[in-house]
Amino acid sequence: MSHYLVRRLLALPLTLLAVALITFALAHATPGGPWDRFDEKPLPLQAEINLNRYYGLDLPVHEQFLVYIGNLVRLDLGTSIQKGRPVADIIGEGLPVTAQLGLQSLLLALAVAIPLGVVSALRRNSLADHATTLLATVGTTIPNFVLCVFFILYFGMTLRLLPFVGWGDGLDVRRMLMPTVILALPAMGFLTRLVRSSVLEVLRADFVRTARAKGLRERSVLRGHVLKNAFVPVLTVLGPATANLVVGSFIVETFFSIPGVGRLFIQSVNARDYPVIMATTLLYALAIGVANLAVDLAYGALDPRVKVAQ
Amino acid sequence: MPDLLDVKGLETRFFTRDGEVHAVDGVSFRLAAGETLGIVGESGCGKSVTALSLMRLIPYPPGKITAGTVMFDGQDVLKMDDDEVRAIRGNNMAMIFQDPMTSLNPVLTISRQITEALELHLKMNRTDARKRCLELLEMVGIPSAKVRMDDYPHQFSGGMRQRVMIAMALSCNPKLILADEPTTALDVTIQAQILELLKKLAKEFGTAFILITHDLGVVAGMTQRIHVMYAGRIVEKADTGELFANPKMPYTWGLLRSIPRLDESRRAKLRPIEGLPPDLINLPVGCCFAARCQYKRDVCTEKEPELKVVPKAKPDHEARCWGTQEGGWLVDVDYRTDTTVMAAVGAAS
Amino acid sequence: MTGVGQRSLWRDAASRLAANRAAMAGLVVVALFAFVAIAAPILAPYDPAAGDTRNHELDPFWGDPAYRSAAFPLGTDQLGRDVLSRLIWSARVSLLIGFVPVSIIVTIGVAVGLVAGYYGRWADLLLMRAVDVIYAFPELLFVIVIVTAARGTWIGELGSGIVLIFVSIATVSWVGMARLVRGQVLALRGLEFIDAARAMGASDRRILVRHVLPNVLAPVIVAVAFGVPGAMLTESALSFLGIGIKPPTPSWGVMINEGFTLAIQSPWPVLMPAVCISVVMLAFTFLGDGLREALDPRA
What is the pairing mode between strands B63-72 and B36-40? Predict the structure, then answer.
């Protein structure tokens, strides 16, 4: 393994620490606590003191942080203030759902975008190409929550074609269809445009002319010389794509009442349930960090020039 | 012996938003088996497009071969279907490109890029193809080829990559190699080595080659004949020695004057050709070099001269110039001692 | 690079943009949107925050004749507020959200990017560390964390929460702009005309302002064209999630949030803001794509 990857691997915990520090500081530098309610009677003072002691909120902030990190290393994520249960348990329930949703959306996006982008590039300036580009632009541009509105109102409420509440057991295809497609659409649009421009760029390269001069069939030129080169930029955006899926999952899970980490995060934000906010934020940073790392690994396998550069 | 290559009236155009570019405009020439030919001209004169047209590698759109015949080994390349052309490309007719940095696929090993053609055209299996690949790489002088054959292009220097390109071109033992500015992107010290290698191997293999360059100095010791191109047409054809000794076209004179020479006194100035080549979308009436020619007369801007055998020269020496043709005003002029030009240049500077 | 060459470069870009029909259509929609936002007090027939529950959930003019009223052409929401007026005032919120944070981002980002790229050293080091952290997770997530922390404070109350959104977006997004400018400056610094200017005795300030700045302008313009709708999108997502603009101030996100639970009975109060967001976002995308193609013909 190269130095570069080792360095990246070591940098990941440091990034996580920075993320934890920022979230923690933001949570504690501002007035107002989890016991504040806009609409309810304030808690009796003694109750608040007891609660603070129970959750360790009576310690100085820097000690709270050290305690938190100490617990974190032992994989103890604390207790949810809103739900009164261990955060690790709550996340453990939501994670498989969110992971499945995110993964199948990403796969769907790739499965559609790659062939569509390649065909679009090969039939450049045809009607099909223009239509694909337009659809891809629309797909990337319309925000997730607006898509949710359109899909739920039309397919769910008007046509009564698909259910739009909950997730089921992860095998219920009809129930998963709308959230998966909606989460996939922006990535699909973006990737289609990227694959198209990337293939077009490679088709113009000198080495493609060399391949043609060897007498290869157009199909062999495409398969042997164009695609591998064209996928390098596609791979680099898979890291940021993961980040976008994370953000999309907040919206989609909230709209469809899917019991995943995204909805959990939004619920905890609304309730200022800091143990959960901290844990989900760290989980996201970890997921994105790991995705970026995986992309780097795959990058070296796809493009031999990278190994030397590292 | 019948000709290996017989090009007649080749015409290639590019259809752009600004208009039709007449990149190659009625080019005709012949080449015997094993013969070597240099095509010389400034950039944009149509020499690369000519080479790509012979292999039907002109990107369409915007480019298209609009007229002519290219008889290669008794068959018209321009009338072949796609499969027939592919069977020739890389097999009977191979090409070496200008920039070895970008002409090799960065994500494939050197060996893969050579064996590909062997497997395709010679129907070799992987093992035989690799064996042959190793031989080829050793032949073009890649040190420790056995180890290096599975390296990637970026691990090679420019000169080494061009050697790989030569190995690739020779791999299927072609009858003709088209070398398009093969040394332009390389260091001067490497240029000579690569040219020497190309010449030596072509001779060993009995391969005919066309060397395309903007530099008359490069073809001097390389090819038997030279054709000079300007504005998409051939303006002078001659044996190499004859062309250097007795050029018959003011454009060629200009090219020769712009080569630095060791045998001239240091006071002799290099004289570049003034002006720019004509716009290939709106070609001028008459001789296309007239606008830059110091010797032009009225006839030059009225009617285009044909490519004709010229007097006071070897019998297969042709030029496209009113002045040097039979009865012209330049028949007896020696461009090296011509004082009228010297005076004109002196006055200008 | 300044003077004639620069000017004709911009003129070329403008004519390329004018020839792009999608971009021009986008520009028209964006202009219309800006006009509606600015003229909201004149255009809106009612107070967007006040409703009369006697007229609640009226259909728009193409709806059921028994449940519509000529007085409310686009109908009313569940509190009897005029949907048209709320849509119009939401445009005003969106415009503010689109332009205020982006102005802050451009000011800070360009300044920091120029300094980091041109002088390098610690400024550069600091910027790149900030980039590392900010890029460790998505911008919206960061914005949500900041908004959550500060929502209960005095700043969260300013302008129905709009100021907090300005601050949060700006805090997170200036880094991306600074990184873009830094990259451009690094690429420019190696070019000869900068050396030439320095050789002629130009001061650093003069080089930065007269030579570097005009050359980083094109990518900055493109980034702004995408940053404005990006900020608007962040606001509507936050408002939809219930942590953005505080009701009763209308915003398209707020309207979707409030109307969604009643979407089965009356879908229009949800659909219309959704359509507005889509149209404005598409318009900005077409304009932004057009600008990018016009300013960078190689792409």
Answer: unpaired
Judged against a pLDDT cut of 70, whether residue A308 lies above it is answered with no
* The dihedral sign for the CA sequence C136, C138, C141, C147: positive
Given B163, B188, B223, which residue is the final one in a domain?
B223
pLDDT in tens, C94-145: 899 989 999 999 999 998 888 888 887 788 888 887 787 777 778 888 899 8
Q: How far apart are CA C237 and CA A247, in angstroms?
A: 10
- Alpha-carbon torsion angle A83, A84, A88, A89, nearest 10: -70
C149 vs A24: CA distance, rounded Å: 10
Counting the structural domains of chain A, the total is 1
* A247 touches A280 (CB < 8 A): no
Tens digits of residue pLDDT in B184-225: 877 888 888 888 888 888 888 889 999 999 888 888 888 899
pLDDT tens-digit map of A249-268 = 989 999 899 999 999 999 98
Residues in chain A within 8 Å Cβ distance of C242: 270
**Sign (positive or negative) of CA dihedral B288, B291, B295, B297:** positive
CA distances for B222 relative to A285, B27, B212, angstroms: 63, 22, 11
Q: Which A residues, 146 through 185, put their C-beta within 8 Å of a C-beta on chain C?
A: 146, 149-150, 152-153, 157
CA distance A209 to A224: 13
Interface of A with B (CB under 8 A): 205-207, 209-217, 224-225, 228-229, 232, 302-305, 308
Q: Determine contact, residues B105/A206, Cβ cutoff 8 Å.
A: no
User: Residue A127's domain spans which residues?
Assistant: 87-277
Q: With contact defined as beta carbons under 8 Å apart, do B213 and B225 qualify?
A: no
pTM, whole model, 2 decimals? 0.84
Q: Work out whether strand B75-76 and strand B19-32 pair parallel, antiparallel, or are unpaired.
A: unpaired
DSSP classification of residue B320: -
Nearest residue on chain A to C146, judged by CA atoms?
Answer: A26
Check if the beta carbon of residue A240 is closer than 8 Å to that of residue A71.
Answer: no
ipTM at complex level: 0.84
Rounded to whole angstroms, the Cα distance separating A259 from A280 reads 14
The packing angle between helices C252-260 and A144-151, to 10°, is 40
What is the C-alpha separation between B156 and B236, in angstroms, rounded?
39
What 3-state DSSP class applies to C58?
A: coil
Bin B188: left if φ > 0, else alpha if -120 < ψ < 50, else beta. Answer: alpha
CATH number, domain with residue A174:
1.10.3720.10
CA-closest candidate to residue B321, choices B238, B237, B248: B248
Please tell me which of the candidates A215, A303, A305 has its beta carbon nearest to residue B117: A215
Mean pLDDT of B160-181: 90
Counting beta carbons within 10 angstroms of the beta carbon of residue C269, is it exposed (0 to 12), middle (13 to 18) or buried (19 or more)?
Answer: buried
Q: Do chains B and A touch (3 or more CB pairs under 8 A)?
A: yes
Q: Specify the CATH number for C67-294; select among 3.30.420.40, 1.20.120.1760, 3.40.50.360, 1.10.3720.10.
A: 1.10.3720.10
How far is C204 from chain A, CA to nearest CA, in Å?
33
Local confidence band at B111 (pLDDT 50, 70, 90 cut-offs): very high
A164 domain-assigned? yes
Partner C contacted by A251 (CB < 8 A): yes
- Give B155's contacts in chain A (Cβ within 8 Å): 308
Residue A131 tokens, joined: 């239509």
CA terminus-to-terminus distance, chain A: 10
Give the up-direction half-sphere exposure of residue A207: CA atoms within 13 A in the CB hemisphere. 25
Query: Would you state the pLDDT for residue B261?
Result: 63
- Our CA dihedral for B79, B84, B86, B92, rounded to 10 degrees, sits at -90
